[in-house]
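Blinded run. Sample ID left blank on purpose so nobody reads anything into the name before looking at the predicted structure. Input follows.
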Amino acid sequence: MQKLTAALVALLVGASVAAVLPAAATDGPPDGESTAEIEAREPPNLPEQWRRTYGASGDDMFADVVRTDDGGYLLVGWTGGEDRDGWVLKTDAAGERQWAKTLGGSGTDRLWGLARTGDGYLLAGRTTTDSGPQGWLVEVGPDGAVRENRTVGEGAFYALERRDAGNGTTYLAAGWTRGESGRDGWAVGLDADRSTAWQKRYAAPEGYSNGYLRAVVPTDSGYYLAGKIAGDSDDAWALRVGPDGERAWQTTAGGASRDDVWAAAPAAADGNASAGFVLAGETESNSTGPRDGWLVKFGPEGAVEWERRPGGEGTQWLDSAMRTEDGYLFTGGSDAGPKGSVDGYALATDAAGESRWQKYYGTDGWDKPWPAVRAHDGGYLLAGQTSGDGATGKDGWLVKIGGSGDGGGNATPVETTDPAETTAEAMRGDTATATADPEGGVPGFGVGAALVALAGLLLAARR
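Blinded prediction complete.
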């Protein structure tokens, strides 16, 4: 046991040393800027204002979040042990829980997506019946009261988005369904009243056996879809479809090793499809560490316009993507951070995917921010999962960065970060890593993250 612990200590020390080294970059600095100038750029003032945990003794996770009209937030995910239930939780502006509800039956139930309706919310995920996993749609009111609960067909929904174009509102849920020889990508279009308008399945390209859609990007002329395909290697999968789901094109990206996609964002803030879109995830192909964060920009006709691997030593992943005024904001996790076994982090890039700054956020445990939204008072709200801050098992986790620092209630206090430390944490590369089971999984909980978490537990036991 002593030898094993010593080996694991060495592993952690090596990761810590790697964390302070400059990250390798896929491409050189932008025209007109030197590497020194990029490394000297400081991140904006986005201090961690407060953080909170929610849940019980099982595996609790937030997978999506939206702002609410009363200044608070609504979150969805799952909670429980082996028999997981869909989880809906409402907070006020300071993260104080106002109410929570569980949904589902006796099997595994998960909620992955969330969208606002005119006077409530639409939730999407998967539920288990005697026929196996089913694509699941639930409509709730502002107080969480269930208005409709239905299944659409065999499979699961991993993404849900609302599209407002012209004078109409529609919704699109995407994931996977059973195909002729494996799993197909699946999209279900919904009218403004949330009734099913159409369904489409998209077989994986030739040479791949399974396809999974994990991200939806509404545009002025339809949707971009992104996910992964599995075959001899796992690669990125990108599609463009019309408002009725008819496919205009599909394409793939990736290398000889494993590549995965968790999120996507429009290249134009106004949803103009002619600008293309950017997907975010992780790659083991030509990576600096065991796994790097991965960004791929596709043009409107499916051509790859640029590709970035904002990683460094260690294992990293990117699992949320957001268009900002001057580029993009991505969130993910890394085992090369300064705080715990795996830290959450935020990465900002310019419009060409070049890294601008990166900051770590987290506890002394395993932290994974998944979705992120702009907070009501400025800054951002990160949501996901943590094993720190006194969590029993893994708890749902909220972190408020930037904006007002009024945490109120029982929010975990956060020490003020010295500006020099902030600068040292920034501009070190960036990236994320995630290993998922074929049916969706959780970004970031791969073998590397599991080993680091195990090391932390063994060291804690020796104390």
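Unblinding after everyone has recorded impressions. The radius of gyration is 21 Å.
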